[in-house]
Amino acid sequence: MSTILISGGTGLVGTHLSRMLQASHHTVLHLSRRQDLNAEFPAYAWDLDQKTIDQQAVDRADCIVNLAGAGIADQRWTPARKRLLIGSRVDSTLLLKAAIERRPTPLRAFVSASAIGYYGNRGEELLSENDLPGTGSFLAETVTQWEQAVGEIAATGQRTVVIRIGIVLSTQGGALEKILLPFRFFSGAYFGNGQMWMSWIHIDDLCRMFIEAVENEQLSGTYNGVPPHPARNRDLVFSVKTALGKPAVILPAPEFALRTVMGEMADMLFDSTRVSSQKTEAAGFTFQFPDLLPALRDLLRRKI
C-alpha cells in the first residue's frame, strides 16, 4: 500500500477520502497550516503566503492528492475574494510543483481536483473532457487557471490525473446540506425555472474515483467526476422530497431575488452544466450510484 499526502484534507471531500484511503490500508498524511504529527492523519506544515512547505511530507509520499482551495460558496465574490479563490488553487499547486521537483524520485501519481465549473454555462450541450472551457464566467476562469498550474506538474513527467468534480452530494456539507434545510419546515425550493442541468456525484463515488486514480497506473489525464445521469435542478429538489418521504411544498426561488442577494456568485445556481461520464466509464470505473434517487436515499440513510 501507498503513502498518500493530501492537501485540503480537512474539507468535506478530503475528510471522507482520508477515511476511505485508510480503510483501503493506505497511509494518509495531510498538509496543514499547523503541524500536528499526532493527529489522526499526521499533518505537516505549509504556508502559501510564505511559500513554504515541509519537504519531508512530500518526500515521504508515494502519491499526492491536491484538494486545496478556498471555498467557492463561502463568501460573496468581491474582487479580493476572487483573487483568493484563484490564488489558493494556483499558488498551492505551484508550491507543490516546486517541492515535487526537489524529490529524489518521481511520484507514483499526482491527482488533482478540478471542477465542472470549467465548462461554464452551456445550456443543453453534453460536455466531454475535450470541450473548451466556458467564456465570460469567473468559475471557468478560475478552473482554467487551476488546470494550467496542474499542467505544469504534468510537464515534469509525473503521472497526473485531473478529476473535474461535479456537485458533490453529502448530508455533511455542500449543496445537498443547503437544499435539505427548508425541508425541516416542510418546504423546498428550486432556482428560477429549475431547468438548468446539475451534474452531481455521490461523495462515495467521488472518493472511489480518487482512489482509482491513485491505484491504477494506467490512468492519466482529465476525467469528469460525474455519473451518467445528471438532473435538472427542479428534478433534483423533487427527488430530495421523494427520498425524504415527507410532505413538503416545493416552490421556485426567483432568479432576480437570488442574484440581488448573492451577486455574481448566483452563477453557481443558474449555470447549466450537463456533463458526460463516458470517458470515465470507458476507463473502467463503475459508479455505485449512477442514478439520483438511490444516491439520495443512501446518503440520507447513512447520514454521510
Summarize this structure briefly.
With 304 residues, the protein is an alpha/beta fold. It has helices at 12-23, 55-60, 79-101, 138-154, 174-180, 203-215, 233-244, 255-262, 267-270, 278-282, 292-302; strands spanning 3-7, 27-32, 43-47, 52-53, 63-66, 109-115, 126-127, 160-165, 167-169, 187-191, 197-198, 200-202, 221-225, 231-232, 249-253, 274-275.
Characteristic terms for this protein:
Rossmann fold; 8-stranded mixed sheet; alpha/beta; 304 residues; 16 strands; 11 helices; two-stranded parallel ribbon
Structural class: alpha/beta
Arithmetic mean pLDDT:
97
Main sheet strand line-up:
4-3-2-1-5-6-8-13
CATH top level? Alpha Beta
CATH domain fold name: Rossmann fold
Proportion in helices: 25-40%
Unreliable spans are none
The total tally of domains equals 1
